[in-house]
Structure formats: structure tokens, C-alpha cells
Task: inverse folding
């Protein structure tokens, strides 16, 4: 970047390294940070370093926490016999917003994706298997996304969990609330039919 100090360029590069941030957005963020009062900029930097040093993975479910166990795993009111497997901590937040699910979670921190060189050993599948083997778990709900990688991961987990005799279920997918049948693709319609239930 011409005519800007190297430290500014370094800041722009740091923002540009974040997912979903292009060069122009990175420049806007860098200019914004430099326009902050020094105290606010220091607080922003401190928030990043504090989070990076204090946030870790829950020893049980692998979700993000600042304790040994996350609040969900530490809650005796949750159903610890039902485990919902998700790809990402953001998925836990989404399911918790529904206020319907009362079981516990297991976070894989990704999905199997050969194109991105992510295999089963790169995920927390071993910890899930150990958990199912040692705990009183009756049902594992596979809640990965209904895309190619999510389906591949769900099928792989289904095969891995079969020998344990635990009930393995998959989230139903189909027509969204407010959606129209005429605009649904074949795969969505098939999923909706497969996931139908009695009224």
C-alpha cells in the first residue's frame, strides 16, 4: 500500500487474514481502529488477547468456555444422556436460541472435507467416541449441515457409533417455515418427505 506506514499495512493485512474480510473492508477497519481514542484501541486489543488466553475447550463437549467445563455440561438440569453433535460452536449458540433442546452437545470443530484436507483425525471424533463409550449416553443427534461435507461427516459418525448400540438420529431438514413447495429443490423435497411426522 503506497504512502502508508508499514505498521498500518501490517494492521490491514491482519484484518484481511480474517474470514470474509477483503482488502477494502480490512482498510476500513484499520482506519476505524486508528480513529479510536487510544484508550478504546487499547481496550480492543486487550479484549482480543484476553479472549485468546482465557477461552479454551470444555473437557467434556469441546465447546468454547473459560472454565474446565462449559455451563451446559456443568448443568445438572440438562439431559446428559442425549448428545447433539455439531460442527461449530456457533451451532451450539443457534440451538440454544431455540430454547427447545435440553440435552448436551459435542462440538467437532469442523467437518470432514477431503478437498480442504480435513479428515476425521482433524476433528474431535475420538473424544466423542470415548465419551459414548464411557458415559450413559442413549442418543446421539447428528446436527451437521445438510451439505456434502456435513452429510459425509454424519454418515462417518453413524458408522463409528453403530458398534456402541446407541441410538443415532439425524436432524430433519426440509421446507422452511414460510417457504413455498414450488420453489423447493428436489433434495429439499426429498428431505421434507423423509422427515415427515404424524400430527
Result:
Amino acid at each position: 500500500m503506497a504512502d502508508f506506514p508499514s505498521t498500518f499495512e501490517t494492521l490491514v493485512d491482519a484484518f484481511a487474514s480474517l474470514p470474509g474480510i477483503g482488502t477494502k473492508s480490512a482498510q476500513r477497519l484499520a482506519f476505524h481502529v486508528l480513529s479510536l481514542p487510544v484508550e478504546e484501541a487499547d481496550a480492543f486489543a486487550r479484549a482480543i488477547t484476553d479472549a485468546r488466553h482465557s477461552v479454551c475447550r470444555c473437557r467434556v463437549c469441546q465447546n468454547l468456555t473459560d472454565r474446565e467445563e462449559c455451563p451446559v455440561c456443568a448443568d445438572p438440569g440438562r439431559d446428559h444422556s442425549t448428545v447433539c453433535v455439531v460442527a461449530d460452536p456457533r451451532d451450539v449458540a443457534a440451538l440454544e436460541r431455540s430454547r427447545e433442546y435440553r440435552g448436551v452437545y459435542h462440538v467437532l470443530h469442523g467437518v470432514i472435507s477431503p478437498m480442504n484436507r480435513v479428515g476425521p483425525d482433524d476433528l474431535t471424533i475420538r473424544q466423542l467416541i470415548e465419551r459414548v463409550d464411557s458415559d450413559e449416553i442413549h442418543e446421539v443427534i447428528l446436527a451437521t449441515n445438510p451439505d456434502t461435507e456435513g452429510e459425509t461427516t454424519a454418515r462417518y459418525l453413524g458408522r463409528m457409533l453403530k458398534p456402541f448400540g446407541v441410538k443415532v438420529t439425524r436432524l430433519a431438514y426440509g421446507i422452511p417455515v414460510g417457504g413455498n413447495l414450488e420453489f423447493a429443490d428436489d433434495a429439499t423435497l426429498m428431505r421434507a418427505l423423509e422427515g415427515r411426522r404424524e400430527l
Q: What stands out?
A: The domain at 78-194 is CATH 3.40.1360.10 (Dna Topoisomerase Vi A Subunit; Chain: A, domain 2).
